[in-house]
């Protein structure tokens, strides 16, 4: 109960903060001139965020048919005024895209004690909080037996089995529609009932086991018309099944930098100093400085950015690709500096990839921008590094010059060069996600 009240207070606080930030960011956006654009939402549900990027918290949701006023554009995000007069940001491409949308929000109730809310739909992901029996939740999306819920000012995941959803059984039958994105549905609760007609009053014709797959035929309100393997057709409640080949969750498959999650991996750290310059300064110092500059620019572009280390701390090699996997990074960039056995023996920037299909496009796209840096470019090469090899997400490793080369080092230590690296990576990634 306390949790719910606190959440409410926090939401109000963040809405106020959002208004303030919204005003503050106006200076860097492109205002829409004279006639303000009004847009009608065509997707079934679109998140309104506190800022122009997925990293920002969700403050409200728009539904199909809602009309909103666009105040400004930034990085493919619209700053909008909702009809409650609140100001927030929405991804421009979601507004007109009926494919990428969350399911309609539903209210639910937790049915057990000590139910954990996870950062991601996985048991081993970080726990954000705990719910007790009877606590209310708002479900915004479901996949693979997990429900994405509004959690304080942001979102979290709970195993769907711990939530009962209060779907008001619709009395008036809505129209039958066919969602082209749904191919099959999979039962995710025990003893799911197939009914002759849509609605809880429909006669039960079959009881289905968890993981039963059904062919999707059509949607009527909150019900799916489906067909079993044996050819039997009927209706099943949409809250006991998970549709497949349908809506993607809002945090994956970024096709825009602003919607992407990027992991930056500053090489070495702590007791692992990396290579040494002729001035006895460490590789780990510069990789971190560069990573911070890159992170700042990527965040300004709206991306969600995580670092494998944020300070001069030791991090194991294995923990680095593990973070990328944990957050489902759309790209990971490992930052290093080269060194040759003898000083001033070699110079240049090299981009390494491991997986031809997974990583090489990312490498090529980034390297194209790195050629603009004032250190010679050695091109894109295959590299058998653990951080790449053990990485399930697209990843590259950049050797941004030779730390023990006089010319390269002069650049590496300069802030101007570090900023140019950030420019190059940001531009490269924005091309990669187009
Ligand atoms: Zn290194």
TrEMBL record:
Q: Which GO BP terms sit in this record? A: cell wall organization; peptidoglycan catabolic process
Give the domain of life: Bacteria
Do you know which Pfam families this protein is assigned to?
Amidase_3, SH3_3
Its GO CC terms are: outer membrane-bounded periplasmic space
Which GO MF term does the entry hold, naming one?
Answer: N-acetylmuramoyl-L-alanine amidase activity
Domain SH3b positions = 36-99, 180-244
- Keyword Signal listed? The answer is yes
What keyword terms does UniProt attach to this protein?
Cell wall biogenesis/degradation, Hydrolase, Signal
Which Gene3D superfamilies does the protein's record reference? SH3 Domains, Zn-dependent exopeptidases
Signal sequence annotation: 1-34
Q: Which PANTHER family match?
A: CELL WALL AMIDASE LYTH-RELATED (PTHR30404:SF7), N-ACETYLMURAMOYL-L-ALANINE AMIDASE (PTHR30404)
Name it.
N-acetylmuramoyl-L-alanine amidase (Cell wall hydrolase) (Autolysin)
Q: Which organism is it from?
A: Loigolactobacillus rennini DSM 20253
């Amino acid at each position: 109960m306390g949790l719910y009240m606190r959440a409410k207070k926090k939401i109000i606080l963040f809405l106020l903060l959002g208004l303030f930030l919204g005003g503050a960011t106006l200076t860097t956006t492109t205002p829409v001139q004279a006639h303000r654009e009004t847009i009608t939402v065509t997707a079934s549900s679109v998140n309104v965020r506190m800022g122009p990027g997925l990293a920002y918290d969700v403050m409200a949701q728009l539904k199909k048919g809602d009309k909103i006023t666009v105040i400004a554009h930034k990085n493919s995000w619209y700053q909008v005024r909702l009809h409650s007069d609140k100001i927030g940001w929405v991804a421009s491409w979601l507004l007109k895209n009926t494919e990428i949308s969350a399911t309609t929000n539903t209210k639910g109730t937790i049915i057990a004690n000590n139910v954990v809310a996870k950062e991601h739909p996985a048991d081993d992901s970080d726990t954000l909080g705990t719910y007790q029996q009877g606590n209310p939740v708002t479900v915004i999306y479901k996949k693979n037996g997990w429900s994405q819920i509004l959690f304080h000012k942001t979102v979290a995941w709970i195993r769907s089995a711990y939530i009962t959803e209060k779907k008001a059984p619709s009395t008036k039958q809505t129209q039958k529609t066919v969602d082209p994105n749904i191919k099959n549905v999979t039962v995710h609760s025990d003893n799911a009932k197939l009914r002759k007609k849509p609605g809880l009053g429909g006669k039960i014709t079959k009881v289905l086991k968890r993981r039963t797959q059904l062919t999707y035929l059509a949607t009527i309100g909150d019900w799916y018309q489906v067909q079993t393997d044996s050819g039997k057709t009927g209706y099943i409640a949409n809250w006991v099944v998970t549709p497949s080949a349908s809506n993607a969750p809002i945090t994956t498959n970024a096709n825009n930098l602003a919607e992407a999650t990027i992991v930056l991996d500053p090489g070495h750290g702590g007791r692992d100093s990396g290579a040494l310059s002729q001035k006895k300064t460490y590789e780990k110092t510069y990789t971190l400085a560069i990573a911070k500059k890159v992170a700042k620019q990527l965040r300004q572009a709206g991306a969600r950015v995580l670092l494998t280390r944020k300070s001069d701390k030791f991090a194991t090699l294995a923990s680095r690709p593990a973070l990328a996997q944990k957050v489902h990074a759309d790209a990971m960039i490992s930052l290093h500096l080269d060194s040759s056995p003898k000083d001033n023996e070699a110079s240049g920037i090299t981009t390494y990839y491991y997986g031809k299909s997974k990583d090489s496009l990312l490498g090529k796209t980034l390297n194209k921008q790195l050629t603009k840096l004032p250190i010679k470019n050695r091109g894109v090469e295959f590299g058998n590094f653990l951080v790449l090899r053990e990485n399930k997400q697209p990843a590259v490793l950049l050797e941004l010059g030779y730390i023990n080369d006089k010319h390269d080092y002069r650049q590496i230590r300069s802030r101007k060069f570090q900023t140019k690296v950030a420019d190059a990576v940001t531009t490269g990634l924005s091309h990669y996600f187009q």
